[in-house]
Amino acid sequence: MLVKTDATVVALPQNSGKGAAVRAGVAQAIGDYIFFTDADMPYSLDFIVQSKNHMHGCDVVCGKRIGDYPLFRSVASAAYNGIAQSMLKTSVDDLQCGIKGFTKSAAKKIFRVCKIDGFAFDTEVIFLARQMGLCIKQLNVNMHHQGNSKVKLVSDSIEMFRDVIKIKNNFKAGEYNLLQSFPR
């Protein structure tokens, strides 16, 4: 299957974090489906074609990593997912998988209210999608770990846990304004 794509580079004046960069890209996106992936391209792009088949009647497709991933990172990822799932009451298996797809409508709704600039923005996106009552599907995606990741496992993990607490506190304080913006 041939998929026609157009690409536009959206550059921020300074590094403001992965969440800020993806939000800026989504704000400029115009297609019927909006996808993002990590810059080091560790995921099979077959995910995009497969996801579009799952998006009929669904709003968000999240990758679930399978394949080549170092043991220590796998353990750290499992710990993060377990804690974040418990704190935020979400059932997505791999919150931090760096490839996700959205219908245009879902992406615009979700990313308009996101607040997290760092790596935990993936978790915030899924949490908000669930709170908005959007349909979320998970799809296995082959991963080929790149050794040149910019993730600093210890310091970034600590920051991500802080951000999960921020997400929970933002929601409790009504910071996302979901009831007024997206009544159920």
The CATH homologous superfamily corresponds to: Spore Coat Polysaccharide Biosynthesis Protein SpsA, Chain A
Cα gyration radius (Å): 16 Å
CATH architecture: Alpha-Beta Complex
Morphology: globular
**Low-confidence region ranges:** none
- Helical percent range? 40-55%
Strand share of the residues? Answer: 5-15%
> CATH first level: which class?
Alpha Beta
The major sheet is characterized as: 4 strands, mixed
Secondary structure blueprint with pairings:
Layout: H1 18-28, E1 33-36, H2 46-54, E2 60-68, H3 71-88, E3 100-103, H4 104-113, H5 121-131, E4 136-144, H6 153-172, H7 178-181
Helix pairs in contact: 3-6
Describe the overall structure.
- This protein has 184 residues and is α+β, with helices and mostly antiparallel strands.
- It has a single domain, classed as Spore Coat Polysaccharide Biosynthesis Protein SpsA, Chain A, CATH 3.90.550.10.
- 45% of the residues lie in helices and 14% in strands.
- The chain is built from 7 helices and 4 strands, in the order H-E-H-E-H-E-H-H-E-H-H.
- It has a 4-stranded mixed sheet with strand order 1-3-2-4.
- Helix 3 packs parallel to helix 6.
- The longest helix has 20 residues.
- The termini are far apart.
- 30% of the residues are buried.
- The mean pLDDT is 88.
TL;DR of this structure?
This protein is an alpha+beta fold. It has helices spanning 18-28, 46-54, 71-88, 104-113, 121-131, 153-172, 178-181; strands spanning 33-36, 60-68, 100-103, 136-144.
What attributes characterize this protein structure?
184 residues, alpha+beta, Spore Coat Polysaccharide Biosynthesis Protein SpsA, Chain A, 4-stranded mixed sheet, 7 helices, 45% helix
